[in-house]
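Can you give me the bound-state structure? Components:
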Amino acid sequence: MSTHLSPDRILGDLANLWANLGKQGTPETGMGVLRACSMTLVVIAPPSEEFSALQETIKNLMPEHPARTIVVCLRPEAKELSSRINAACWMPFGQRRQICCEQIDITAPEGSLGDVATVIAPIAAADLPLVLWCRCQGVAESSEFERLAKMAEKVVVDSGAWPDPAAAIQRLAELHARGITLGDLSWTHLTRWREMLSQVFENPMYAAHLPEISRVRVRFSATTMRVMARYMGAWLVNALEDAGVRVELTFEPGAKEPGVELSGADFRVELTREQDRMVTTVGQLSNQASLPEYTDCSLLREELSILRPDPTFERALKTATQLAVRRET
Amino acid sequence: MPALFRLAFDRRLPPGFAVIGVSRRPLSDDQFREMMCKAVEEFSEDTKVDPDVWRGFAEGLFYVSGDFNNKQLYQDLGKKLEEVEAARHSGGNVLFYLSIQPSQYATTALGIGSAGLNQGNGWRRLIVEKPFGHDLASARELTDELHKVFDENEVYRIDHYLGKETVQNILAFRFANGIFEPVWNRRYVNHVQITAAESIGVEGRGGYYQEAGALADMIQNHMLQVMATIAMEPSATFRAPSVRDERSKLLRSIRPMTPDEIGANTVPGQYGPARIGGEDEPGFRQEPGVNPDSQTETYAAVTLFVENWRWAGVPFYLRSGKRLPKRVTEIAIQFNPAPLHIFNGDSGDTAPNLLIVRIQPEEGISLKFLSKRPGAGMNLRPVSMDFNYGSSFGERSPSAYETLLLDALIGDATLYTRQDMVEASWAVVEPIENVWHETKHDFPNYPAGTWGPQASDEMLARRGHEWRKP
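Here's the bound-state model for the whole set.
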């Protein structure tokens, strides 16, 4: 049983919050605050969410992607919908005015996502994109989720956290087929890998060996990398297909170091992650580049930078779905 | 009364100012003062009732009881006016404010006239609230009745939207700046959207609302007046006749629709039940006092065209509704896209340039445009330059009623609606109302808490446009 959460009241509280912050100074004296907002970021947090870490992620995102952040905390023990608003401010280096973003925390009983959706629509910032970051696998699989997802310019998930990679990819493909623009942090993880591999074949000498490639091996270690591995495989299959090359793709779970290997008769390219470095090996030559661990913040920062559909990802998702089906059969 | 008290609080009323309350209910002056004190305490949003100010203000409050249909009332009122004039040296100026059933306007005005109260030592003026008739003929009839007692320049038809700071600021924005007027025309403006959304339902006014509907309750008056302010030609001076002439001219330039055009250019709606924010909300037909088969529209959307050189071909989309997602009144002027897209689809957003005038809440103006996101590549994002009344001026904005009452007291009718404007508005709305009344609507056609019927989206989509979500 949940009670009423009024969007008008939340908007009224927000207006009061800014009026009070505005009284802290005037633009002429250089004091006061500047309200910044370039989007609405809705975060759906699971009951198990560690809020201090999530808060830190949001705080670090704000200078680059200032947003009206709406954090929806689904709590099994919550009896009713409730909300709380606050502002997160920071002082840019060398300036005298704080920049502030607003955050609305909504606590909701599990299973009340439909009620939450009716509140989010009116409190989203007008004329600005709405991005939905769903950190809760169970929610993303629910039918109520789609109502929320359809409000968003982009829905970001982390399928790596889902227990069944094939089901995760299948669900994402379903959402995509319904016209929802998706981002998946498992895919975002691959940006550097894709860049490094592409750079190898920018060299015409190596590009000439492309037709020789017949095998692609994707190694991964942690279970959280299973979807990532499929995306990598799917992307490589697509990219090589575009070059007129058909390959045999294999996955090697449980590897000591994650990596990817493209090989043919007399040619081999391998990328391996070794701690915080990426080692690129082409034939006998090898090169190392820095590859620090990704954080939610760094991944999301990248996803928020481009809100339009990513055709490369969408194609990889489609291929990954077929790969998943092929493996199952 | 809260508005009058605030004017007193701000020392904007003369010392001899007095209010005589008139109603059927028998009350003494003191009882009336007590009742008004409670009302001011309850309804003054930002004015604390200062006991000293109240004491002085309350000394000028008087009361007369009686039946508006009985001539004795007007005799009693006349005596009271004489007493007050003698006691408070008010100079004989009298403003009659009819906050009564519209059906009583004519009777009351004639009663005032029969007792000779429309003339005296000072000026005499009459304020009436909307609705000004229920169609063109009744609006004319009402005017004719009022004119038997008061000249048109003594009749003040109040529309509180025009008293709002932001609506007044439209005039300043357009005519005090040189940079906007050159683009304020069909060459640069793609279309205009005016939204007046309420998140609440009829709130116990089901019986009244059932007789009115969104078209007559909002579009015929408030929204057409706002549209006139946005679209009117510059007036030669900022004097009432000049400004009102331009508003009137604009309203008369709106092309009335033929019955054939009405289907494609208007959408009525009525909200159905829905669950919002964790609570089950009733549909309009489930509201107390509402006919379960009611055909009254709680939502109205219309596409209007202004037939003049400035606006020919530019659609003006007006929508108003109850139980929409949020309470907001805004004007959005969407400008044409850049003639050549040198940043193609890979560069991101193609959001249009918008000028948003927010009338309520958080009064202000925003200009939306595209900007390059910092970093590599040419990624575009919509950004906004905002002017907010609340934070830009460190002073309180007067309420619409404070502004309008003070204007009526000083004889400035700029923000009041004139007879010809009322008639021009009805000329636009009446054909639509006639067709809607003859049609059996498939209501409800939008769930409470949504932005209205799908047909409304389709109405815009036919011209390649879409409603903003304010």
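A couple of observations. The mean pLDDT of chain A is 87. Residues 185-329 of chain A form one domain.
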